[in-house]
């Protein structure tokens, strides 16, 4: 009986099953590419966050899409079972669902953009994730509340003065020994343009902003065709 079931399953796998499987992957790639063009080329305004399903469903056809997992993986490695996590500039909410929610007791995910938060609530709703629409600079951080704070590429969109304010807030909201992950593109000056004034250019100057507040545990650069990313793990 077991052998018969195996033969039937294999027959399905290599006939109709294979057609459906390949077709579904191709359609997911096509559909998410349409999402990309709709959001970034035909919308009246540029979105404040990126829908990472676009990366997820095109990764199999384009290995350069791997960059999108970087912030999720680095953040995930810091989270222990039952930790309480704060994700700053959460965007579409995919990282909170895919990388942080499986083991965390609770995840607070904050972004100032109403459209991104509404999308996150529709697409990645889960009992232990709370999506919060708020400006980080005016948000009331609660002292000693989080085991892990994660701040991915959004860190580069704040001015030096704003980041210094937020680093102090983050320090206070972390529990003793809490971990803080920062990930950001590191742009070279020759690639600098007028609309990227606050993107990180000088890593040493950037590190000076938090070096007196946090203990540096880890620093790692990752290299891609069009840019370099820099990742930090800090401790309170």
Question: Would you kindly provide a written description of the structure presented here, covering whatever features stand out?
Answer:
The protein is α/β, with parallel strands linked by helices and 236 residues long. The chain has two domains: 2-46; 63-235, Rossmann fold (3-Layer(aba) Sandwich), CATH 3.40.50.150. It contains eight helices and seven strands, in the order ααααβαβαββαβαββ. The protein has helices at 2-14, 16-40, 53-56, 70-78, 94-100, 114-123, 160-173, 203-208; strands at 84-88, 106-111, 129-133, 146-151, 174-186, 215-223, 228-235. A seven-stranded mixed sheet has the order 3-2-1-4-5-7-6. Mean pLDDT is 92; it is low at 189-197.
SSE map:
Elements: H1 2-14, H2 16-40, H3 53-56, H4 70-78, E1 84-88, H5 94-100, E2 106-111, H6 114-123, E3 129-133, E4 146-151, H7 160-173, E5 174-186, H8 203-208, E6 215-223, E7 228-235
Parallel strand pairs: 1-2, 1-4, 2-3, 4-5
Antiparallel strand pairs: 5-7, 6-7
Helix pairs in contact: 1-2, 4-5
Helical fraction equals 25-40%
**Going across the major beta sheet, what is the strand order?**
3-2-1-4-5-7-6
Query: Structural class given helices, strands, pairing?
Result: alpha/beta
Q: β content, as a range?
A: 15-25%
For CATH, the homologous superfamily of the largest domain is named as Vaccinia Virus protein VP39
Number of helices: 8
CATH fold type of the largest domain? Rossmann fold
Radius of gyration: 20 Å
Question: Which geometry do the CA atoms define?
Answer: globular
**Topology pattern, helix = H, strand = E:** HHHHEHEHEEHEHEE
Give me the oligomer status: single chain
